[in-house]
Amino acid sequence: MHAHVQEPSDRAGLFITLEGPDGAGKSVVTERLAAWFVDLGVAATIVREPGGTSLGEAIRTVLMDAQQQHSGPADALLFNAARAQLVATVIQPALDRGSLVLCDRYADSTLAYQGYGSGVPLDDLRRIAAISTGGLRPDRTILFDVAVELGLERRRHGPDDQQTRFEDDRRHDRAFHERVRSGYLAMAAAEPDRWRVVDAGTSLDELTAAVKAALGDLLPASVGEPRGTTVRTG
Ligand code: TYD
Q: What pLDDT score does 10 carry?
């Protein structure tokens, strides 16, 4: 298997991913960014992982089943199967059309959760991701960083308190979330050109402004479709 790593210059569109814990505000900020892209006249395709395709949604249902206990490698392979389908059928075609693609979670989530969190070797996960993504890497990844205690607190009491297996799972104790957080910060530090870290412990308005600022140098250049074609999946 050759992992052809696509550099951003290989393609017309712009690929942005959002990472960080549940409860950090990614969903609300995604909604606001969608409106911002429309204002800017930037065609955007907005997706989330796992999901965004019928296979991905089916895998999401399996992954979120609170009755199921999966091993770390099983989870990693399931997330990557969903990712493979999403890249092949949604993300890559949209980038080829010149669209901006905003993805709520991507391959870095697997490194953070199954790798740093659950102990699956990072090199193994990178090889799997090379297969599932075809080497497609984001132009920019925003890390929504928040203290573990605050993130957990928001998840317990937040308005969007839909329980997922992950949030509910007793195996995912505080130490797990600390490993995920420091894993994310280590990845951001190792690749500073791609990553921007925003403080998700602030208000949603401040957070949204910080995320826009972290994307400002990429916009609105290099996106080519006419306005009004925002596509939402997942
Ligand atoms: P979800 O309810 O979608 O959370 P969020 O809205 O915060 O993204 O649940 C996704 C969960 O799946 C989240 O806890 C992170 C986890 N996850 C992994 O463990 N590995 C992965 O590769 C991905 C994409 C998500």
A: 54
Whether 164 lines ligand 1, by a CB cut-off of 6 Å, is yes
- 234 pLDDT above the threshold of 70: no
**Cβ–Cβ < 8 Å for 30, 210:** no
For residue 214, what are its two tokens?
A: 């972290």
Give the pLDDT of residue 223. Answer: 46
Residues 6+ apart with CB under 8 A from 82: 49, 50, 51, 52, 53, 55, 56, 59, 60
* Predicted TM-score (pTM) of this structure: 0.87
Of all protein residues, whose CA lies closest to atom 14 belonging to ligand 1? 166
| Nearest protein CA to atom 12 of ligand 1, as residue | 166
**Residues 6 or more apart in contact with residue 100 via CB below 8 angstroms:** 13, 14, 15, 16, 37, 42, 43, 44, 45, 219, 223
- State the amino acid at position 201 in one-letter form: G
Give the Å distance between the CA of 42 and the centre of ligand 1. 27
Q: What is the mean pLDDT of residues 157-180?
A: 68
- Residue that is written with structure tokens 């306005």 in the block: 227
CB-facing half-sphere around the CA of 213: CA atoms within 13 A = 9
Please report which confidence band the pLDDT of residue 11 belongs to, taking 50, 70 and 90 as the band edges.
Answer: low
